[in-house]
Design goal:
Radius of gyration: 17 Å
Mean pLDDT: 95
Strand order of the largest sheet: 1-2-3-4-5
Number of strands: 5
CATH class: Alpha Beta
CATH topology: Aminopeptidase
Structural class: alpha+beta
Distance between the termini: 58 Å
CATH superfamily: Gcn5-related N-acetyltransferase (GNAT)
Low-confidence stretches: none
Helix content: 25-40%
Number of domains: 1
Number of helices: 5
Strand content: 15-25%
């Protein structure tokens, strides 16, 4: 009943809907500013910045995974970074999340990646246990740092002036 397929440009609306549903689940719906045009440009344009897969259950769109590649200078190899993994609530508990994770793991293996990595919110204990059950390990010594939005330009301009 589970079918995982590559996302296509015609899925841009669906991908954005999944992103919005994920943001709702993560209690941050107001943070989604992406548009269908952004998804089309960055996922299916001249220089794709991400790849995605759609999970279907009995022909119905049930979830998705979205990833991109990064690079480890320590290992001298690229890695797969899983940005989003989401399964709609009515389809949970049927193995779709695991199927998407394993799908990405296979891509990482096929591509010769040195790492397959993602983040999980600290309050999502069921997801943490699930990931650990698959063999993933938490890296508590690492803290995510972020500069976002207009702060990027502000920091960039302050760096230039400090020369």
């Amino acid at each position: 009943m589970i079918h995982i397929r590559p996302a296509h440009p015609r899925d841009a609306d669906l991908i954005l809907a999944f992103v919005r549903e994920l943001a709702e689940y993560e209690k941050a719906p107001h943070e989604v500013t992406a548009t269908v045009a952004d998804i089309l440009r960055d996922g299916f344009g001249e220089r794709p910045r991400f790849e995605a897969a759609i999970a279907e259950w009995a022909g119905e769109s049930a979830g998705f995974a979205l990833w991109f590649y990064n690079y480890s200078t320590w290992t001298g190899r690229h890695g797969l970074y899983l940005e989003d993994l989401f399964v709609r609530p009515p389809f949970r508990g049927r193995g779709l999340g695991k199927a998407l994770l394993l799908h990405c793991a296979q891509i990482a293996a096929d591509q010769g990646c040195g790492r397959y990595q993602w983040q999980v919110l600290d309050w999502n204990e069921s997801a943490i246990r699930f990931y650990e059950g698959l063999g993933a390990r938490a890296l508590p010594e690492w803290i995510t740092m972020r500069i976002a939005g207009s702060d990027i330009a502000r920091v960039a301009s302050s760096t230039e002036s400090n020369g």
